[in-house]
Write a structure and sequence with these properties.
By secondary structure, the chain is α+β, with helices and mostly antiparallel strands. It has 9 helices and 4 strands; from the N terminus they run E-H-E-E-E-H-H-H-H-H-H-H-H.
């Protein structure tokens, strides 16, 4: 049985988890901290989570895992059979992961973890993020799904990352930059959350958030 290593506060972990749940592939979840835990370099060379344990060995990088799962369990399809349409789905995923999410990620320390960004960083990231979100908007269709009429792997990537860009930009820049470029991300999230797999991903993430907050309070007060 597959084992997905990481934790449910990671959007890339949730991207892979969402795909597995949608396909009905049996898997176990194994907690692994940032850095991967003991002996991580044998499993994930950069210490990044998530990583996937298979009968043949370990895989790192979320899209590599997604492609492996699609190839091994092709039904239900989360990638179009047509090569062009499949390429357009992969284009959306790459754009979300590499251009939008990694840009927005620079805001996360202040938005979600109580840190203060160095002077000028927020303004720089805001300019970059607006440009990248506008470009993503030109690629995405939202008709009603990210790549068009059908639910695909693109939705598994967009669903777990686009709301973070919106919330982080609102918290740090004072404006929801996703909405500002014309993306109705809240309506899109409501659509995707109708899916049982999405509901499971969200419920597990919220439960982990609650546990993390409780643990933080214990550390701050020294009380159980």
């Amino acid at each position: 049985m597959l084992k997905l290593h990481g934790f449910s506060l990671s959007n890339y972990y949730n991207k892979v988890k969402f795909i597995l749940l949608e396909k009905g592939v049996p898997f176990d979840e194994v907690f692994a901290p940032l850095g991967g835990g003991e002996g991580a370099q044998d499993k994930t060379p950069l210490g990044k989570i998530p990583f996937l344990e298979t009968e043949a060995g370990f895989l790192c990088e979320s899209q590599v895992m997604a492609d492996y799962i699609e190839a091994r369990w092709p039904e239900p399809r989360l990638m179009p059979a047509d090569p062009w349409q499949a390429a357009k789905v992969r284009e959306l995923i790459a754009f979300m992961d590499l251009h939008v999410e990694l840009c927005a990620r620079q805001l996360y320390p202040q938005a979600f973890f109580g840190a203060t960004l160095p002077e000028g960083v927020a303004d720089r990231v805001k300019g970059e993020l607006v440009q990248r979100l506008a470009a993503f908007r030109r690629l995405a269709r939202f008709a009603p799904f990210a790549a068009g009429e059908h639910f695909t792997q693109a939705d598994c990537a967009v669903f777990v990352s686009l709301p973070l860009a919106a919330m982080a930009s609102r918290a740090v820049c004072g404006e929801d930059l996703v909405a500002a470029v014309g993306i109705d991300w809240k309506g899109y999230v409501k659509l995707i959350e109708q899916r049982p797999a999405a509901q499971k991903v969200v419920a597990d993430r919220k439960a982990d958030q609650a546990r993390a907050l409780a643990a933080a309070r214990v550390r701050q007060t020294g009380q159980g």
